[in-house]
Structures are given as structure tokens and as C-alpha cells.
Amino acid sequence: MSLGRQFKVKLFADGANLSEMLALYKNPLISGFTTNPTLMRKAGISDYAGFARQVVEAIPDRPVSFEVFADDIDGMLAQGRAIARWGKQVNVKIPVTNTKGEYTGPVLEALAHNGVALNVTAIMTVEQVKKVARSLAGGTPSIVSVFAGRIADTGVDPVPHMIECRKVLRDVVPNAELLWASPRELLNVYHADEAGCDIITATPDILAKLSLGGKDLVGYSLETVQMFHRDATAAGFRIEV
Questions:
Q1: Known catalytic residues?
Q2: Segments of the chain assigned E as strands
Q3: Which of 19, 34, 102, 213 to pair with 45, CA 20 to 30 A apart?
Q4: Which CATH number is 88's domain given?
Q5: pTM of the full structure
Q6: DSSP strand E in 107-223: where?
Q7: Does position 203 have pLDDT exceeding 80, yes or no?
Q8: 227 domain-assigned
Q9: Looking at the domain assignment, is residue 215 inside a domain?
Q10: What is the rounded CA–CA span in Å between residue 79 and residue 53?
């Protein structure tokens, strides 16, 4: 795999398929891993903690993020502390709010100031980043995940948005890393790098396109023409002329 140029942004793989994760673990371009309950459910995982412990054992030397799913402060705290005990490379994912829209600041402050590395997730706005930064300030180095891909889905250009988020973190909590979450295409790796993000997390289908970085477009055009011709021939298509 090659990106065609050197990047400062780190690549994290996002998924819940252990065999795919282990294959990506062999790639030196992959600096860490993330997952979430939705991905794990889609992968057919029924034993949340059991799967997580498998991952931690198999990937002992790169950061891995696992998310709480309790919806109250006490439950999030208890689950967060339990997840943190799974391994020293673990980041505990805490959503920026609960399902009622209540800010999870008390959880962030309690965990971050008691040695737990966090990954604050589901963030969309600069105001949310400001609140999170204040909660994390002075605590354990953590990750702040802004869902740039979902922001783009609403018609908003995420690049200036992420640049502003990066400035907030540098000013308030410089030991936090900004993560570009939910990318939609390989180009977002370039966007994340230009915006000064520390990390971008991507699914295996996007990571599979890494080899296209810097590819010659004339050659790529020819390959595309050859693909259309090959598939038309293989399908036995005919046009009466």
C-alpha cells in the first residue's frame, strides 16, 4: 500500500472484523484501530467484552478505541473504567452527549483526570469541541473525534470546520489529538492532512484504495476502458447494427 506522498496525519482502521483488523495490523501505515457498537453488531458480534479482549491481545502495541454504551453518568463511568482495564493501549470512547442530548462533561472530566485515555466521539460542531476541550484540559492525552464525513453529508465543507477545531484544541488542550471521523473517500485523507488533523479513521474499503495514491491518470483511464470492454465481452452483450 502507498499513498503516493508523505503525510503527517495518522491512519486508523475502523471496523469490527478481527481477521481484517489483523491483516491491517501487518501494514505499517496503520497506526491504530477504532470500532463502535454499530460496527460490532453488523459484524455479528454478541460478546462485546470478549471480542474486545481478543483485539487487545492480538494488537498489543497500537491504540484501540472501544465505546461505552450506558446512557447515564454513573453507567458511563463504570463502563469507562472497566474498558480502560482491558489494556494500556485502549482509548475509551465516550459520546459527546447521551441519547437525551445531555453533555457528558462530568464523565470526561472524571475519567480524563484519573488516568483514562479517552476518545470523545460523535462530535459535529465547533462549540462541542470547545466544551470537550475545557473538560479534557489538564487530563490524560486523549482523542477528539469530529465526524467530518457526516458534516460533509449535510452540504458543509468540513475542511475549514476541522481547521477551526484544530485551533481550539491547540489553544485549550494541546495534548489532545483531532481525529477526522467517517470519511467517505480516499481524498479525505488528503483533506485531513491539509486541515492539520492528527488522525483519520477509515473503513477497510477506503483503506483498500491506498494503492491508488499518486496513480497515473492516463493509465487509470486506459484501465477503465479495458474494464468496460472486458465486462461487455464477458457478459456476451450484442448490438445489432
A1: 93
A2: 10-14, 30-34, 64-67, 90-95, 118-123, 143-146, 177-180, 199-202
A3: 102
A4: 3.20.20.70
A5: 0.93
A6: 118-123, 143-146, 177-180, 199-202
A7: yes
A8: no
A9: no
A10: 14
Domain-embedded: residue 32:
yes
pLDDT at 1: 47
Which residue range forms the structural domain that includes residue 41? 10-209
> d(Cα 63, Cα 77) in Å, to the nearest integer?
20
Q: What's the grid cell of residue 96?
A: 459527546
Helices 126-136 & 158-172, crossing angle to 10 degrees? Answer: 20
Residue 55 corresponds to which cell in the numbers above?
Answer: 483485539
Provide the pLDDT confidence category of residue 5 given band limits of 50, 70 and 90.
Answer: low
Closest C-alpha to 116, from 140, 134, 98, 138: 140
* Mean pLDDT value of segment 95-120: 98
Count of structural domains within the chain:
1
Residue reference for cell 484501465? 223
Q: What is the pLDDT of residues 52-106, one digit of tens each?
A: 999 999 999 999 999 999 999 999 999 999 999 999 999 999 999 999 999 999 9
Tell me how far CA of residue 127 lies from CA of 65, 96, 168, 235, in angstroms: 24, 11, 10, 54
> What integer pLDDT is reported at residue 21 of this predicted model?
96
d(CA 115, CA 193) in angstroms, rounded, equals 29
Rg (alpha carbons) of the chain, rounded to whole number: 20
Residue with cell 475542511: 159
Residue 3 in any domain: the answer is no
